[in-house]
């Protein structure tokens, strides 16, 4: 069982994650994690904080000489803006200054509900933790999960397919080639024409003080059939992935495969027919069964089916607008325009990197449940035994 906790506030000294259940022998170095952290900070339409924070990770435990030890892994991402907030976010009672209280909750955020739930009269106590800044350390955890999966030939990637109503046309290429195209784009988009239209839409929104959302798509290749289970609702792989994606700030919808489109088609145009060709085994395939389509998105009956995993997540526009929405002051109960925190015009490219991370974490967890062991060597032995079992099924 792979599990993790994150801690820290947006303007606190640092963000911290502790990962438990990581087997020994998994390659894990700061440079690879930093690569993912840098990707999260890229993207056209980002705000001023990306000029302040250049995220890097510190590995404080659980790793020695570039490999995990099987003890808890501690990852830390420092907040470089902390020096400007050391008293405003201080844990010390003597630094309390009630004149700094934020009392105007922002529509679309956790502000009001969180203040009511936890009996806060200062909304900053809510927005500091509910901020999407928390996703920086989740990306670090996702990088560790990706490293585990890569040890078994499993790759996680993706691209931005839509921003502000501008949809990209995905080329008919191998997923690895599509990921390479997206990696060269400021929008993580694999359609150069659509990318320019997306940028123009972002410029227009920024000029009017507005924000834009979009759609990100994540794919996983190299998965064996059988991750997840149909025997209980909370073991279904698609359910767990949907929860992981919906846990990302601002994500409002998730699809697997063709998703909602499957509700509009007859069954004959939805379900992926099964074929078997033993010659595939001689060509390097691990199993003989295959499908000529993948409308199911690699999951059937709550389990991976051996096809690439295809996931899509919809991100709403960031609700912090420079053209503030109307709100109500929690102390005076008078109507006001909502407080403006430093924000992005569009963070869809960043959402893609976070989506890849949470998917990698959930897939790594399911992989360990199926092939679990205490070391990379033991897990590999279990995995290879399973592949031999299904090879001639």
Describe the structure.
By secondary structure, the protein is of the alpha+beta class. It has one domain: Chorismate synthase, AroC fold (4-Layer Sandwich). Helix content is 32%, strand content 20%. It contains eleven helices and 18 strands. The protein has helices at residues 30-40, 49-52, 111-118, 124-130, 135-150, 175-183, 192-207, 237-246, 279-282, 348-371, 376-391, and strands at residues 3-7, 14-20, 24-27, 57-61, 63-64, 67-69, 73-78, 155-163, 166-167, 214-221, 251-256, 274-276, 289-291, 299-300, 303-304, 309-315, 326-328, 335-337. A five-stranded antiparallel β-sheet has the order 9-8-10-16-11. α3 (111-118) packs across α4 (124-130). It is globular and about 75 Å long. The relative contact order is 0.17.
Which labels suit this protein?
four-stranded antiparallel sheet, about 400 residues, alpha+beta, 11 helices, Chorismate synthase, AroC fold, about 20% strand, five-stranded antiparallel sheet
Based on the coordinates given, report the CATH architecture. 4-Layer Sandwich
Instruction: Identify the CATH homologous superfamily.
Output: Chorismate synthase AroC
* Number of helical segments with 4 or more residues: 11
Under CATH, the topology can be stated as Chorismate synthase, AroC fold
Give the integer mean of the pLDDT values: 94
* Beta strand count: 18
Specify the biggest β-sheet: 5 strands, antiparallel
The side-by-side strand order for the widest beta sheet comes to 9-8-10-16-11
- State the separation between the terminal residues, measured CA to CA: 28 Å
Helix content: 25-40%
Class per helix and strand makeup: alpha+beta
Tell me the number of structural domains: 1
Report the C-alpha radius of gyration, rounded. Answer: 22 Å
CATH classification, class level:
Alpha Beta
Order of helices and strands: EEEHHEEEEHHHEEHHEHEEHEEEEEEHH
Taken as a percent bin, the fraction of beta residues is 15-25%
Overall morphology: globular
Uncertain residue segments: none
